[in-house]
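Example 3.2
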Amino acid sequence: MENTHKVRLSDIAQKLNVSTVTVSKAIADKEGVSNELREKIKRVAIEMGYRQKTIRLPSLKPENSTGNIGIIIPSRFFARSTSFYWNMYNAIARELQGSGYYAIMEQLDSQSEFDLDIPGVIRDNKVDGVILLGQVSLDYAHYFARNYPNFIFLDFYINDSSTDSVTTDNFYSEYIMTEYLISQGHRDIRYVGNFGATTSITDRYMGFAKAMLEIGLEPKLSDIIDDRNSDGAAIPLALPKKMPTAFVCNCDETAVRLIKLLNQNGYRVPDDISVVGFDNYVGSGPSDPALTTVEVDSAATARSAVEILLRKITGQPYMKGHTVIGGNLLIRDSVKKLDRNI
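Structure, written as tokens:
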């Protein structure tokens, strides 16, 4: 059953132990709330997925503003198997338009990334700032951060507390997902995803590992089933010799590919084996059976990234560093409850 709860002002007030009136004033930028509390309320509202369109920045643009924000996406994320990024780009473009800016997308090809080339929209002064969407190499990320100030990383981060980034809460969400499988009687669980390919996959695996360790099972990196190569391109999945009772996939696209492979090998999901995903997004349409997954709130993630970037550009205060947006566990039909612990 899906979690369709919508965040209300009273939910935010309860979390922060303040009145609903205080929350309403803060979000509407009315008097009677300190600047510090106002910023805290807005930040928590975004993190909780508050969907009202009233959280908007004042239309303050630099005097020489282009009115544009660049969205830089590595070319490899435009493959069919990673169409999730199209969805995220559209969410960012909508948020920017609501704040009086237009999105200009530029693809970053592998050679430009290797050569440490600054994107053309920056060199040609076509944008006020940039959102870099999707994992790039650490060399490129650090080089970019040293040479261009008005940016934010989206869907990945680097080991530098001075850089700004926004991601889904990959660690905790995958931890909760694995906990759910365990609650359904599963113990023999394998992870599917190239560990280290992206910060998202790494964090998701670590959440999986935490849940397994807590029940006395020690996952091994050698047991991970790779779904992509080091460049992020999808590779054929290989089933293990000894089949588990459940697979935790790093994304829905991989989960759908795995279900097809299991079907081809005579296994039924979830009757024989359970499969779960992450993202709540499959470019090819709904899976069969309906996939238990973690919903990534693209709107809230885009909203947070846009707000932070525009605050940087306009010189307004903001919470610096890494911002994490919670995900929602969606329980559907791809998990079987076992009658016994395995």
